[in-house]
Amino acid sequence: MSQARIGLVGLGVMGANLSLNIAENGFPVAVFNRAGSVTDAFVASAGALSARIVPAKTYEALIASLAKPRAVIIMVKAGGAVDAVIDALTPLMEPGDMIIDAGNADFHDTRRREAALREKRLNFIGMGVSGGEEGARHGPSIMIGGNPESYAVIRDIIEAIAAKHEGAPCAAHFGPDGAGHFVKTVHNGIEYADMQMIAEVYGLLRDGAGRRPAEIGALFADWNKGPLKSYLVEISGRVLGTPDPQTGKPIVDVIVDMAGQKGTGRWTVIEALRLGQSPSTIEAAVAARSWSSEKATREEGAALFDDLASDPLLIPSDRELEQALLAAKIIAYDQGFKILSAASGEYEWNLDLASAAEVWREGCIIRSALLDDMAAAIREGLPQGQLIFAPRFAGLIREGARALRHTVSYAASAGLPVPAFANALAYFDTMRQSRGTADLIQAQRDFFGAHGFARIDGGADRHGPWAGAVAHS
Ligand code: NDP
Description:
- By secondary structure, the chain is of the alpha/beta class.
- The protein folds into 2 domains: 6-177, NAD(P)-binding Rossmann-like Domain (Rossmann fold); 185-431, N-(1-d-carboxylethyl)-l-norvaline Dehydrogenase, domain 2 (Orthogonal Bundle).
- Helices cover 54% and strands 9% of the residues.
- It contains 19 helices and 10 strands.
- It has an 8-stranded mixed sheet with strand order 3-2-1-4-5-6-7-10, with helices on both faces.
- Strand 2, helix 2 and strand 3 form a beta-alpha-beta unit.
- Helix 1 packs parallel to helix 6 (132-138) and helix 11 (264-274) packs across helix 12 (280-292).
- The radius of gyration is 25 Å and the shape is globular.
- The model has no long low-confidence stretch (mean pLDDT 97).
- Catalyzes the oxidative decarboxylation of 6-phosphogluconate to ribulose 5-phosphate and CO(2), with concomitant reduction of NADP to NADPH.
- The active site is at residues 184, 191.
- Keywords: Gluconate utilization, NADP, Oxidoreductase, Pentose shunt.
- Belongs to the 6-phosphogluconate dehydrogenase family.
């Protein structure tokens, strides 16, 4: 076989499937895995595609099997493992060669790695890949950051392996260094909110209405035919209809209610706060996962407060819940796009937000019918940068606002937690309140810290007459 077009390090779940996808699209790929037995097993299971796979047992052999300029994808556990692989590869590479980190990296790490490799005249691309195992194998959504000249070298491969939306590849170059990984991080943050909101509806129907998982699953399957059509609603419906082979019970009923997380949701929130943004729906979803892991505490709390009575309102109808979920979801995306916009300004990435919505239309976990409309709305221009103000979404929010309010009110009255829904509603209500309550916050700050305030009449006096303030004790 002639030399491979591209190399790949890390034949775990994602790396193995991405390699098969590359080979299937006609590109010879050289592969390396730290544990060599994994490489052997991978090649043995690749069937006819093994003709386009070059197994390498050392980094030297991997590099030797690549056409120049050499390009190596790293698909290993995020963090120190990525640095270890970079350290192993760089002494073997020549100026103009490139390393592509396709894992879920913190974009600050990507910026650091890009700068360090640039010093060595090597190129570094941060490539966000979404779609899980199935996406990696048959077409993920791909978000690229790095210099455009490097991307041009591998663009044909990336566009061939990416998911397609009406023939257009769901892969885009977003800007330099960490831009692609940041878009992927925010994608994951939105994914957290999306998943949490679906789980909150499940909770209201299970604990409020006493519905069985299969009934809730059937409702989700029905919603998946309407404006909520999305991968996450679809799989939630399927999950809820699945029995446990061992007990015959619904599978969700035998799963411990403690959610894992690997950090991308948290990174989204941390970076958003750094940028002066507050993605409260995403933060609520991260918090809900963290609280879920405090199982023993929750059990003690349940016993301690078991006797607290609630006086629930009438539970929202299925139609209201559908409208509430749609409205809350749009609000979560509004917050996600605002983070992207803020980061774009801060890091001078010039991110194309519509392009983000476009590459998320297929292949990735948050793919949904709504994203096509979101891309169109962003291209038309968002009033005040708010998706919820864009005419086509303002209309949906207007239709769903009452249902969202009823859902949050019902949940509060029934003592059922809906942190993402509640935060979505609070954000929406804040963003439609022309005079808020920060006048008092400013007065408090000036009272105790002489921080000053702006007057609505534009007057010059920036401090209150606090020495004469009335004590109401
Ligand atoms: P796996 O756990 O399946 O595989 C991890 C891989 O990393 C293995 O090949 C392992 O090699 C290798 N590795 C770990 N440490 C080192 C090291 N120090 N040096 C060299 N190789 C090392 O991970 P995934 O495929 O699930 O994930 C890979 C990346 O993709 C992660 O960043 C993940 O966050 C991201 N990702 C995962 C998705 C998913 O759905 N799973 C979706 C999107 C992104 P060995 O066999 O020798 O241990």
